[in-house]
C-alpha cells in the first residue's frame, strides 16, 4: 500500500479524530485500511474530523451530543456505541447523552430513541466493566 501525502486538513483532522476516538481506536482503523478504502478514510478524516469536528464554534462535548443524537435518529448502532465510548474524551456526560436521546424521542421518534437507549445502557455497562478491570 503506497503512503499518500497529506495536507493540513488531513493532519488537523487526524489530530482531532485521535483526541475524540482515542489512539487505540484510530490505530486499529488505520491498520485495517486497504487500497480500496483509503480515499474514503481520507474523506472522513478531512471532512468530518477537520472541516466539522475541528471548528471552534461549539465544544467537543456539544458536538458529541449532536453526533450521538443524529446517529441514534439514523439508527446507526455501531456508530452510536463508538461515539458513546468517545464521550469520555469529549466531556459529554451520561446525563448529556440521556438528554440528547430524549430529543431523539421527540424529534425522530420513540422507537429510535428506545433502541439507542438500549445501546447506550449496554455500552455504559461495557465501559464500566472495562474500567473495573483496570
From TrEMBL:
> Which SUPFAM superfamilies is this protein grouped with?
AhpD-like
Carboxymuconolactone decarboxylase-like domain: from which residue to which, for each copy? 40-121
Membrane spanning residue stretches: none
The GO terms describing molecular function are: peroxiredoxin activity
* Pfam families in UniProt: CMD (PF02627)
Concerning InterPro entries, the annotation shows: 4CMD/NDH-1_regulator, AhpD-like, CMD-like, Decarb_PcaC
Give the PANTHER family listed for this entry. Answer: 4-CARBOXYMUCONOLACTONE DECARBOXYLASE FAMILY PROTEIN, CARBOXYMUCONOLACTONE DECARBOXYLASE-LIKE DOMAIN-CONTAINING PROTEIN
- The protein depicted here goes by the name 4-carboxymuconolactone decarboxylase
Naturally occurring in which organism (per UniProt): Mesorhizobium wenxiniae
Gene for this chain? pcaC
Amino acid at each position: 500500500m503506497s503512503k499518500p501525502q497529506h495536507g493540513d486538513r488531513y493532519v488537523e483532522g487526524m489530530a482531532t479524530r485521535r483526541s475524540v476516538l482515542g489512539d487505540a481506536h484510530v490505530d486499529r482503523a488505520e491498520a485495517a485500511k486497504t487500497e480500496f478504502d483509503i480515499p474514503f478514510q481520507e474523506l472522513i478524516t478531512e471532512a468530518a474530523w477537520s472541516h466539522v469536528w475541528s471548528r471552534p464554534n461549539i465544544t467537543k462535548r456539544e458536538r458529541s451530543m449532536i453526533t450521538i443524537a443524529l446517529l441514534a435518529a439514523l439508527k446507526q448502532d455501531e456508530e452510536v456505541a463508538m461515539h458513546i465510548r468517545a464521550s469520555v474524551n469529549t466531556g459529554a456526560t451520561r446525563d448529556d447523552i440521556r438528554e440528547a436521546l430524549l430529543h431523539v424521542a421527540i424529534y425522530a421518534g420513540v422507537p429510535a430513541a428506545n433502541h439507542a437507549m438500549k445501546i447506550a445502557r449496554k455500552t455504559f455497562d461495557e465501559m464500566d466493566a472495562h474500567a473495573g478491570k483496570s
